[in-house]
Every structure is written in structure tokens, then in C-alpha cells.
Amino acid sequence: MNKEEKQLQPEAETRHQVGQDNLQIFGMDINAPVFLTSSLTIIIFVLVALVFQEKATVIFEDIRKWMTSRLDWVFLLTCSLLVVFCLYLIISPLGKVRLGGQQAVPDYSRLTWIAMLFSAGLAIGLVYWGIAEPVQHFQTPPFNMTKVYDPEQVYDDAPHLLPDSTHPDVKAARDMSFAAVAFHWGLHAWAGYAVVGLALAFFAYNRGLPLALRSAFYPLLGERVWGWPGHVIDTLAVFATLFGLAPSLGLGAQQVAAGVEKLFGIPATSTTEVAVIVLITVIATASVLSGINVGIKRLSQVNIWIMIVLFSFVIVVGPTRVIFMTFFTALGDYAVEIVPLSNWVGRTDSYFIHDWSAFHMAWWITWVPFVGTFIARISKGRTVREFLCCVLLLPMLITLLCFSTFGGTAIHQFLTNGYTGVMESVETGAYAAALFEMFEELPLTQLTSFVSIVLLITFFVTTSDSGSLVVDMLTAGGKLDAPAAQRVFWCTAEGLVAIALLLGGGLRSLQAATLVSGLPFAFIIIGIGICTWIALRKASR
Predict the structure, then answer these.
(1) What is the band of 9 on the pLDDT scale with cuts at 50, 70, 90?
(2) What is the C-alpha to C-alpha distance for residues 332 and 239, in angstroms, rounded to an integer?
(3) Do 349 and 221 contact (CB within 8 A), yes or no?
(4) Which of 321, 348, 491 is nearest to 404 (CA)?
(5) Closest CA to 16 of 378, 370, 373, 478
């Protein structure tokens, strides 16, 4: 056991040593049941999806339709319960418990810590959906509200046909679009990260257990977590992580390809998208080999600064007043609409619930083992209250500001100037191009588009290398310094899964993979929440 792993075990409740049952073979150090089950399944999936692309497309689409229509309540209810639990911990006396003990000191400054968790928790999705989603909800608002955008009209040639921005229906559609965005990317999104991250950090730093998902079930399973029940939990976590990351990597590749086509005229074909994934996988592999305190830490800091510069530029040269009004109005509308949007009973807007809400909640759930483990890894020394406020509330505010900046600017361009570039991209499903269409109406179009591509790539890399690090830990029995060959293997696996899903159905297949892997993990997260509550109550006595 190395020095870093010894520091994770101050008051161990178990005699189990990290990696004691591991198998050393071919230069690797693996938990055989977890590694072999997950790796072989991934390899078979990739081969089948690539060989039978047409059949895979049909199967993925059928799975997506069935799960969103029949099991939407599972994802919505799970995320809602997690939000309530987090808010309770923030205001309860349990919030005083410190991760690592009362004398523990954080390993990172607050700014660096927030930068790392923010980069891992959002990544490509923020840039991809930052314009596309609010514009989509403006065009087709939830609750079957009146549509105010008619794709049949040619607004830029006939400005008198533009919707009146002060009309009640237009204002309601605009406001509801951002309330919906806040619902999908706010508390419900980050609650799962917060619960799992808190659980793993507490059991690792306060109870001396390995930094693995199975450790969170120690209060219920005891020493059995080191046997088959634990193997099943960690294996499901690996599947959820890989199939949760793959959609983001696939969407990121689509958007990078769209930007390259816009700037350099290289067609955004499947070949280009695959080439992007391969290139980024190579860079991510180099980053993950450099370790968490070199590649991942520095890239996360670079991410934040590029994002700050890009969004600040849009705020300054764009409709500044409209952006901030959108942000504050969205906060109020979110507070009013969060309960109606969380409800699935009696709703008639099935398109919104199934294609958007259920998908988003499932997506967040699949990201939970990856982001939760990563956040736990970097959160020693924080109190429960500080941890939850920074992981749950602060990212929600930053995210909503980003959506208000990009989405608010795009909708403003349409309502005031009749510019339909973004509107048409979203209407036709070309979400990846929406960002670059918005920049067409702003100064320094070429430069901002190039900076956006750089931001996408750095987000892409931090997502892939952070995910590889977590999967490596899960399949190595919780060890933090598994051999380099294993990290290379999982980086490669992420890229191959993303390629297989893109070629086997595109966005729909990415959504299907997210839903399937998120379903079993929804129940695991609820169990983790219960175990965390039991452990925190015991620690606070």
C-alpha cells in the first residue's frame, strides 16, 4: 500500500486492505470479477455495434422509446428524492461533519477545487446544449404552451412577421424555456453527484474504506461488500460511467466537427467525427497518464479560464442587459416551476417529458459514479455543508448564467433582428451547429468559433481522462495507482464506445445507451443515500 492509500485509512472499520484480492497479470493489477466482466462486455458491445450498424440503430431507437415512455417516473422520482435529501443535509446539524475528521485540511484551494468539479461535472454538455436546448424549448415549450415560432415563415426577409417580444405568449414561451433548462441542469442534475461524492468521501476519509462505490454500502452489507454484492455494484458503476460518458464524447465530436466545417470547410461527416474522437482519446490518454495533479488539474484550470473569457466576451458584445434579466428571471421561474416540471402524472406534453426530462435525468444518473467518485477524490477537508453548497448550488448558478448568455443571446437575435440561423439549426436537429450560427451575428466570428473549438477539446479531454481515472479505480479494487496500461485501456474503451454509438444510430443511440445504463444505477443511488444518512447520524453523535 502506498503513502496516498494509507492516508485514506485513518480509522478503518474493516480489515480489508485496498486491492488485497486483486489479480496481477500481464502487468496489470485488477479486481478480476469487475474488470473482466466489464471489459469483456464492452468489447463485445463495440464489436456487435460496429458490425451490425443498421440493426443496432433500430434496436437503440426501440429501447429509447420504450424506456422514456414506460420508465420516465423512475428517473424523475430518483432525482427529486436526491434533491430533497441534499437540501435536508445542508440545513441539518449533520452539515457540520468534516470529511476526513475535524482536523482535516483541504488538498486544493477552493477555486481550484470548484474548477475541477465543474469541469468534470458538466464538460461538453454545457457548450453543446447551451444554445440548442433553450432555443428548442422556446420553439416547443413544455405544458403544450402556445408556439410562437413558425419554421414556415421567412422572418429575416419580412421583419413585420416577427413575434412581438412583449406579447404574453412570447414572453411565457421565453421564460418557460429557461425554467425548463434550469430544471434539467440545476438541482436535479447535481444532487446525484453530491450524494455519491459525499458518501464516497465520508467512507474513504472518515471510515478508512477504499474509494469505490461498494464502500458506500458498508453500513448495510458489512464485510459482504468485498464479495459478490460489491462486485455487482462496481461493475454496474463501470457500465454507467462508460455509457454515460460516451454520449457526451459523441456530442462533443459532432460539435467539434461542425466547427471545423464552419471554419475550414472540412465536411462534418462520420469520418470526421470518428477522427476527432480518436485524436482526443490520444490526448486524454497522455493526460491521464500524467496524473490527477498534473494533466487533469491543469486542464481543468485552463477550461475554466477559457470558458470565463468566452462567456464574458458574449456578455459584453451581446445583449448584456437581456442576458442578466434572463438569468434573474429564470431563477424566479425555476423556483415557481420546479415542482410542476418534476411531476409526470397527468402531463400531456409527452414529447417534453420523454425526449428531454427523462433523458436528462437518466444522463445525470449515469454520470453519478464517475463524477461522484472524482469529486470525492478531491474533496477531503470540506464540511458536509460546504461540500453540498459548492457541489449543488454554485454550479447550478454558473450553469444557468451560461445558458442565459448563449441561449438568451440566440433568442434575442431572433426576436429583435429576425436572425433565424440558430432557429433553423435547432428546428432541423442540427444542434451541433447552433453555437457557431450564433457567433455569425457577433464580432470576431472566426476567433470566437476557434476558441469554442479549443474549449470543446479541453472539456473533451478532461471528461475522458477523469472518467478513465475513475473506471480504473473501480476495476482495480479502489487502488489509486493502478498500472498505466489499465488507464490506457479504459481511455481507449471510452473512445471505442463513443464511436460505436455514433456509427450505430447517432444521437438516438447515445440516448438509448444513457437510459439503459442509468436504470439500475437509479436504485443504487437511493441505497447510497440511505447508507450515507445512517453513517452521518452515527458520526454526529
Answers:
(1) very low
(2) 37
(3) no
(4) 321
(5) 478
- pLDDT tens digits, residue range 40-92? 988 888 888 778 777 877 887 788 778 877 888 999 999 999 999 999 999 99
Place of cell 441534499: 86
Task: Quote the CA–CA distance of 484 and 478 in Å, as a whole number.
Answer: 15
**Which residues neighbour 280 within 8 Å (Cβ) at sequence distance 6 or greater?**
249, 252, 253, 457, 460, 461, 464, 495
Quick one: CA dihedral 433, 439, 445, 449, positive or negative? Answer: negative
User: Strand, helix or coil at 23?
Assistant: strand
Alpha carbons 485 and 307: distance in angstroms, whole number? 32
Separation between Cα atoms, residue 5 and residue 484, nearest integer Å: 17
Q: In this structure, how many other beta carbons lie within 10 angstroms of the beta carbon of residue 305? A: 12
- 366 phi/psi in degrees, rounded to 5: -70, -25
- What domains does the chain contain, in order, with CATH numbers? 3-540 (1.20.1740)
Q: Are 19 and 478 in contact (CB under 8 A)?
A: yes
Instruction: With residue 336 as reference, give the H or E element that holds it.
Output: helix 320-342
pLDDT tops 90 at residue 178 = yes
pLDDT (tens digit per residue) in 207-256: 888 888 899 999 888 889 889 999 999 998 888 888 877 777 777 888 88
- Contact call for residues 315 and 309 (beta carbons, < 8 A): no
Determine how many CB atoms are found less than 10 A away from the CB of residue 66.
12
How would you label 356-392 residue by residue, b for 16+ Cβ within 10 Å and e otherwise?
Answer: bbbbbbbbbbbbbbbbbbbbbbbbbbbebbbbbbbbb
Rounded CA separation 177/134 (Å): 5
102: which 3 cell numbers?
Answer: 475535524
CA dist list (Å): 232 to 33, 225, 229, 344, 521: 9, 10, 5, 31, 11
